[in-house]
Amino acid sequence: MTAIQTYEEKLLTLSEGSVHQHFDPWTDIDWDNPDYAIDADDPRWVLPKADALGRSDWYQSLPLERQIEIGLWRQANVAKVGLQFENILIRGLMEYVMGLPNGSAEYRYVTHEATEETHHTQMFQEFVNRSGVDVPGGPRYFRVLAPFLPLAARPLSIVFFMGVLAGEEPIDHLQKAILREGDRMHPLLQRIMQIHIAEEARHISFAHEYLKRNVPKVGKIRKGVLSVVFPVIMRLLGDAIMVPSKDMTRQVGVPKKVLKEIFWDSPEAQDMLSDVFYDVRALAEELDLMNPVSRRVWKALHIDGPGARFRSEPVNAGAKAA
Questions:
Q1: pLDDT for the residue 208
Q2: How confident is the model at residue 321, as a pLDDT?
Q3: Is the Cβ–Cβ distance between 127 and 79 less than 8 Å?
Q4: What value does the mean pLDDT take over residues 63-91?
Q5: Which parts form a coiled-coil structure per UniProt (predicted)?
Q6: What does the angle CA 277 – CA 280 – CA 286 come to, to the nearest 5 degrees?
Q7: Euclidean distance between CA atoms 136 and 247, whole angstroms
Q8: CA distances, 276 to each of 57, 116, 124, 153, 172 (Å)
Q9: CB burial class (10 A; 0-12, 13-18, 19+) of residue 75?
Q10: Per-residue pLDDT reduced to its tens digit, 261-314
Q11: Alpha-carbon 26 to chain mean position
């Protein structure tokens, strides 16, 4: 896509990308490959330092067998919450297209995206099934609200697509960080992440383009409301996706105080929260959703900081200091 393309041309570019570069979990992943077998004692399930829990002193002090146990549970649970979010997204996209008129340029791309997200849910669920770990996915409140969230797709479409970014950006950020780290990892998980990142790039691009097209059309008062709603959605859904729920304490014995420190209270936690929404803050600036009030909200939620200079720019110390 280029800056000089119209919105409709950008959608066509994304749709053609879905036609010519797409994946099917049942043909593009060799599930029966012996190298892809999941062994609960495999040291490659030790969490990488790109994961906040994996780089914590508490986790690194554990015996290898406990690191493996917790690592496999964590990876399987991230996949489960990912498929739960994508289930909500698919239902919301189908609700959204029901309201589109004939000839809408959005219809084709949105249904391409729904198809790809369906494949992702299959891919993630198959990984969870083969892991042998009975993970719950998102926190209880997230699972209770899941049936109702897609209903916002038509009446509150801008808010819905903000929520899309709030769910997609954290997982995309974590998976890219893990792959960039280059640590030895299980090849099945690596293949799943590669496929997911490749297709999520289009999905995130569409959400960005949708908001860039529609937010400028709203009035001043509504834009003021959206400027405050945006960071709140980012933090709430970001936590649901990234932060392990109480089930991690109950099922695998990670102390609550450790999770609180790792994901909420420590300076490293604050850096992680800021980094996850590096791209989104740049989008908020571009949409004129950064104002004195909303900046205070971003800061109060501990997700403030500089914005990326371009989509998917890796976060680095230099950028933070800029």
A1: 95
A2: 41
A3: yes
A4: 95
A5: none
A6: 150
A7: 7
A8: 21, 23, 21, 24, 9
A9: buried
A10: 888 777 777 787 788 888 899 999 999 999 999 999 999 998 888 776 665 566
A11: 23
Q: Tokens standing for 253?
A: 């014995």
CA atoms of 214 and 283, how far apart (whole Å): 13
Q: What is the mean pLDDT of the chain?
A: 90
* In the chain, alpha helices (H): 7-20, 57-60, 64-97, 105-131, 140-145, 157-181, 187-214, 220-242, 246-252, 256-260, 267-276, 278-286, 292-300, 317-321
Residue 180: which of 266, 275, 85, 84 has the closest Cα?
A: 275
User: Global pTM?
Assistant: 0.90
Is-contact 95 150, C-beta < 8 A? yes
Residue pair 257/264 in contact (Cβ under 8 Å)? The answer is no
Q: Which two tokens stand for residue 15?
A: 């749709």
Token digits for 154?
């038509």
Cβ contact 49:181 at 8 Å: yes
Say what the pLDDT of residue 241 is.
83
The CATH classification number of 7-301 equals 1.10.620.20
With CA atoms as reference, report the closest residue to 180 among 51, 68, 55, 67: 51
Q: Render pLDDT for 20-75 as a digit per residue (tens, 0 to 9).
A: 988 999 999 999 999 999 999 999 999 998 888 998 999 999 999 999 999 999 99
Domain positions in the chain:
7-301
User: What local confidence, expressed as pLDDT, does residue 196 receive?
Assistant: 94
Whether residue 158 contacts residue 214, with contact meaning beta carbons closer than 8 Å, is answered with yes
Tokens of 109: 């791309």
Report whether 210 contacts 161 (CB < 8 A).
yes
